[in-house]
Amino acid sequence: MIVRISTEAQYEVPADQVDRLNALDNACVEAVEAGDEAKFHETYDAMLELVRKGAQLEDDDLHGSELILPPPDLSFAEAGETFTGDGLIPD
Amino acid sequence: MPGIGGRFSTVMKAKISKLLDKAEDPGETLDYSYQKQLESLQQVKKGIADVVTAKKRLQMQSEKLEQSVVKLDTQARQALAAGQEDLARTALERKTLAQTELQTLDTQVQQLETQQEQLTENEKKLRAKIENFRTKKEVIKAQYSAAEAQVRISEAATGVGEQMADIGLAMQRAQDKTEQMRARADAVQELEAAGTFDDLTALGPGEDDIDKQLRELSTGSQVDDELAKMKAELGSGAPTEPAQIEKESGA
Known about the structure:
By secondary structure, chain A is an alpha+beta fold. Chain A is built from three helices and four strands, in the order ββααββα. Chain A has helices spanning 18-33, 37-52, 76-82, and strands at residues 2-5, 9-12, 55-56, 67-69.
């Protein structure tokens, strides 16, 4: 699955990592709902790390992303608008 | 695989499709898209130049503040050596404030540096994608029927569109940050204009408003500590009677 980390790059995340990504996505939503800022940043960082383990797409690659993650420097307030309901990846 | 939702992705994708839904004739769409891409590349270059300008301004302020810190420290020592403890204290209070501002500025300069690098990197990606799109555009024009071309165009344009939307977002964030920094930089400039970091010897007699504000701003204990340290350093040779007013906490 091609995932873009906004303001950073696009990565090819192996299919067998998508469930793990989804779990982290849901954990982000939980942390936001619980108002737990530290937990959110920890979880979102883990999500970013997982994506970054994938191969980065070539600069001139014209593929669109299946998933677009918010910028890495997302604030907790911004996260409140993004990580709601099912998160970025619907269950 | 589940479909991709989430407000963020939706907003981004909406922006992309808006970019693509401009013309009906495939050939026209291609040329129009390419034109738009080149325009947005110019915008990106301008955006990066703005970030660089903002950064330079902050760097200049930072250098001036560094000079003030050195100058105020020297003045504090001189004042103390001459037995003018009040003046030394005022100089140290101002130095503390200048140092605090300096730290903030340095952090901001670093943040801008990061954003500049990020934008430059993204610009490189956009340029590469646009170049690839240009090649594809000619192939599509030459080889495909209208219906098929439409599909190929949206495939090719999606990558560029997404990159453009992403740079747009990065620029927006950089602009928000430079706005905040501009406000901060203006505040420092006001302090400068009010003579806060100026030569103390140029100051008139007695306390002015700045000194009162400073007293509230700067943490007394830090100034006390530094004053004590300075006294100890000077203590050996200087003819000052070591006043033993060791305050526990100044503030």
